[in-house]
Specification:
heterodimer; A: 337 residues; Phosphatase 2c, domain 1; 2 domains; 21% strand; B: 137 residues; alpha+beta; Heat Shock Protein 90; five-stranded antiparallel β-sheet; 5 strands; transferase (chain B); HATPase_C_sf (chain B); Serine/threonine-protein kinase RsbT (chain B); kinase activity (chain B)
Chain lengths: 337, 137
């Protein structure tokens, strides 16, 4: 520190002398470069004033007394900036620390999500989940049992960031501990609701859509807990239906029960599950209509499911100027023709 | 031998007197103008805290010496004492960004950064003692 100060002192005197002699733009450019170096070396504002005083006293030994004193006065005035500067430095270090911690937490959160989508005979599955910031409040789940039956869930933890992520870990472990209900969406949501109601703060809620798919007979059973409705694409009629399920948000009432719905999935049909980050995509003209989403899906429906969801995401991201305001999750499960 | 002066603080004049005493001693010890300004600013902040929150207290300013194998080190020590309300949560007031007076970077964390050593003791209902030292390099 002392070293860098004396080095700076010499440099400052040199560029100041050059400037006073030539008085040109080049000299001022050196001053600008010097100010960058000063910041790099973490020299605070009052020290810069002191650099100036020392240089001036050396260059003009016969300066009027008042002029010298006025610099001392300036130095005192700069003390406040010095304090603010040091606080800024320490806050910046702290922010970096926090960011590192969040990065670790975010990569840990990734391990809660399925590492890969298991291959299921006759099904084409596409999944995309993108957090708005580092931690996500969206959760999805995809398991295949020994009979090839699939249990899948999409959930949105109301709230964002770290608290939502903490809550997600609980949901994941609770879901893993009910293997026998994997194929009974209503019963599974009832169990989950009890866990959430008992263990999560009163101001935290979770919406979820849970479904089970039996690829041997192509039956899809599903239940919902206040979750954003999805879509069901009917291939024969080339039409989209709302895929909604009545049910109270998880964590509100202890004894909620959830209706179970059923669809017979025909070749070419597909199921679309989404989080509200998809439908609440906001543009300058307000929220987009659900119809715009089905239009986008229709536009890309000839593509494999994974490419389909990626294309829809890209278009919606573009609509929002590549700034996500909410966590985004889109899942498409298609029965192959 | 230590030079010591004590200044009562219960008006803004007291703050100015404490600054003056600190600057004089800092100059005498041989601190440069930047460090003089730092010591004075630290005294000013501590005295203002007394004036604003405890109403009455004192600032003691003294020279101190520390002996090493390589020689002696000289410094200035500031002690701010009051019998005010005390600080309930010291950790909180030592945190950056926490300030009741709205200053940027000022307050106790600012004092700590301006000086080399810093120590605080406070008992609610009894008062606060803060010591801060700046060593001559």
């Amino acid at each position: 520190m002392a070293d860098s100060y004396s080095l700076m002192q010499e440099q400052y005197r040199k560029i100041l002398v050059t400037y006073l002699k030539e008085k040109n733009e080049q000299g001022l450019y050196y001053a600008q470069q010097f100010s960058k170096k000063v910041l790099e070396n973490q020299i605070s504002p009052e020290e810069v004033v002191s650099l100036h005083i020392e240089a001036i006293e050396e260059l003009f030994p016969y300066m009027p007394e008042g002029a010298v004193d006025s610099f001392e006065f300036l130095l005192e005035v700069m003390m406040g900036y010095g304090l603010a500067y040091r606080e800024h430095q320490s806050l910046r270090d702290k922010q970096r620390e926090l960011e590192n911690e969040i990065n670790v937490a975010a990569s840990m959160q990734q391990t809660f999500l399925p590492k890969e989508i298991p291959f299921v005979q006759d099904l084409d599955v596409g999944v995309l989940s993108v957090p708005a910031s580092k931690m996500s409040g969206d959760y999805y789940h995809f398991v295949k049992d020994e009979n090839g039956c699939v249990g899948l869930a999409i959930a949105d933890i109301i709230g964002k960031g770290v608290p939502a992520a903490l809550c997600m870990s609980m949901i994941k472990y609770a879901m893993d501990s009910y293997p026998e209900q994997r194929l009974q969406p209503g019963a599974l949501l009832e169990n989950l609701n009890r866990v959430v109601e008992q263990n999560v703060a009163a101001n935290m809620f979770i919406t979820m859509m849970y479904g089970s798919y039996d690829p041997r007979v192509h039956h899809f059973y599903y239940s919902g807990a206040g979750h954003e409705p999805g879509f069901y694409y009917n291939y024969a009629e080339d039409s989209f239906d709302e895929l909604s399920a009545k049910g109270v948000v998880l964590g509100i009432r202890r004894d909620s029960s959830f209706l179970e719905y059923h669809k017979k999935v025909e070749p070419g049909d597909f199921i679309v599950l989404l989080s509200d980050g998809v439908t609440e995509c906001r543009t300058d003209d307000g929220f987009i209509e659900r119809e715009e989403i089905t239009n986008l899906i229709r536009q890309y429906k000839h593509l494999p499911a994974q490419q389909l969801v990626e294309n829809v995401f890209y278009q919606l991201e573009k609509l929002q100027g590549f700034q996500l305001r909410d966590d985004f999750t889109l899942i498409i499960i298609r029965r192959e023709v | 031998m230590s030079v010591q002066s004590s200044v009562e603080v219960h008006t803004e004049w007291g703050i100015v007197s404490a600054r003056q005493a600190g600057r004089n001693l800092a100059k005498e010890i041989g601190f440069g103008s930047v460090d003089q300004a730092r010591v004075t600013t630290a005294i000013s902040e501590l005295a203002r805290n007394i004036y604003l929150y405890a109403e009455k207290g004192e600032i003691i300013i003294e020279t101190i010496e520390q002996y090493h194998s390589s020689g002696a080190k000289k410094g200035i020590k500031i002690t701010a004492k009051d019998r005010g309300p005390g600080i309930k949560n010291i950790r909180e007031v030592m945190e950056d960004g926490f300030t009741t007076s709205g200053g940027l970077g000022a307050g106790l964390p600012g004092v700590k950064r301006l000086m080399d050593d810093f120590d605080i003791d406070s008992v609610v209902g009894e008062g606060t003692v803060i010591t801060a030292v700046k060593w001559l390099r």
